[in-house]
Write a structure and sequence with these properties.
The chain is an alpha+beta fold and about 100 residues long. Helices cover about 30% and strands about 25% of the residues.
Length: about 100
């Protein structure tokens, strides 16, 4: 869990949301809080066990900085960043 931090892009490996990417907006000792900007908005993040997540190794620094500083983050920012991340992943697989 030490590699998962605020702003990390993670892949859900278990549950109804298996195979979906999320951005971590909060971390505590037993859970992480996830949003995707679409189904899971910043107002109601998904609480998930870190054992059920796979860290992509990518951190969205701009979003992480805003969350840590307590600034307003919009769901559209998160959704756009995740969409860009998924497109980059697909391009890497096709090359």
């Amino acid at each position: 869990m030490n590699s998962i931090q605020i702003g990390s892009v993670v892949l859900s490996t278990q549950g109804r949301d298996k195979g979906m990417y999320f951005v971590v907006t909060g971390v505590d000792d037993k859970a992480v809080y996830l949003v995707d900007g679409g189904m899971r908005k910043l107002a109601s993040p998904k609480k998930k066990n870190p054992k059920h997540l796979s860290d992509s190794g990518v951190k969205l620094d701009a979003i992480a900085a805003k969350i840590i500083d307590g600034k307003k983050v919009f769901d559209s920012e998160v959704k756009s960043a995740l969409r860009q991340f998924v497109q980059n992943q697909q391009e890497k697989q096709n090359v």
